[in-house]
Amino acid sequence: QKEVEQNSGPLSVPEGAIASLNCTYSDRGSQSFFWYRQYSGKSPELIMFIYSNGDKEDGRFTAQLNKASQYVSLLIRDSQPSDSATYLCAVNMGFGNEKLTFGTGTRLTIIP
Amino acid sequence: DAGVIQSPRHEVTEMGQEVTLRCKPISGHDYLFWYRQTMMRGLELLIYFNNNVPIDDSGMPEDRFSAKMPNASFSTLKIQPSEPRDSAVYFCASSFTTGPNHFGNGTRLTVT
């Protein structure tokens, strides 16, 4: 069983709709959760991080964390073609934030 | 802030040759990470340093791989001898203690 799992997609969403990306993790002791966006041929770029159960909003992005169910999700509202990328979920499996385990990513395509 | 700087951007070498990848972390960051990304395996952590000291090298695939961090502003990842299966994009990232990883632009390595 992989430690961090994501649906590889591709996930296609019409422009203006809500894109929902999901991630599950295996270690109940995980403390910190991150979403990275990676455009083709580029490096991962941090979008959001969340530490506590519940929702965290930043502009069009909302991260949701449910530690009891061991999942974290990312919602993108009013999706734009520029949101088309691979989204990587990363989880800290240790005590601090120093070591991250990444999922294999979900490829998102926004259809104009 | 110049970000994490990696060199070279691209490296093409023949099997059996030595390859050295270089990284300059963000000034003031105390953690440095080396990752490898392939289509098949996604983003994998190879090794990370804290205050120039290697903390966890469990992700280093074989003895052919070695990494050093002689000072706070420089790190190298060396592969000797290189093999075709080492072809991948290698990312260096740095962070400040409790912060998320900031990635460099990566080195695309091709071993023929």
Give a quick rundown of the structure:
The complex is a heterodimer of chains A (112) and B (112). With 112 residues, chain A is mainly beta.
Chain-averaged pLDDT of chain A: 91
Number of helices of chain A: 0
Largest sheet of chain B: 7 strands, mixed
Number of helices of chain B: 0
Q: Outline of chain B, from the CA principal axes?
A: globular
User: Distance between termini of chain B?
Assistant: 36 Å
Which structural class do the helices and strands of chain A define? mainly beta
Overall radius of gyration of chain B: 13 Å
Fraction in beta strands of chain A: over 45%
Encode the helix/strand succession of chain B as letters. Answer: EEEEEEEEEEE
Largest interface: A-B, 19 and 23 residues
Helicity level of chain B, as a percent range?
Answer: under 10%
SSE series of chain A: EEEEEEEEEEE
Total strand count of chain A, please?
Answer: 11
Spatial gap, N to C terminus of chain A: 36 Å
Multimeric status of the protein: heterodimer
Can you give a write-up of this model?
Helix content of chain A is 0%, strand content 54%. Chain A contains no helices and eleven strands. In chain A, strand 7 (61-66) and strand 8 (71-76) form a beta hairpin. In chain A, the strands form two sheets. In chain A, strands 2, 4, 5, 9, 10 and 11 form a six-stranded mixed sheet that branches. In chain A, strands 1-3-8-7-6 form a five-stranded antiparallel sheet, with no helix packed on it. Chain B has 112 residues and is mainly β. Chain B is built from no helices and eleven strands. In chain B, the strands form two sheets. In chain B, strands 2, 4, 5, 6, 9, 10 and 11 form a seven-stranded mixed sheet that branches. Chain B starts with a strand and ends with a strand. Chains A and B meet through strand 5 and strand 10 of A and strand 5 and strand 10 of B.
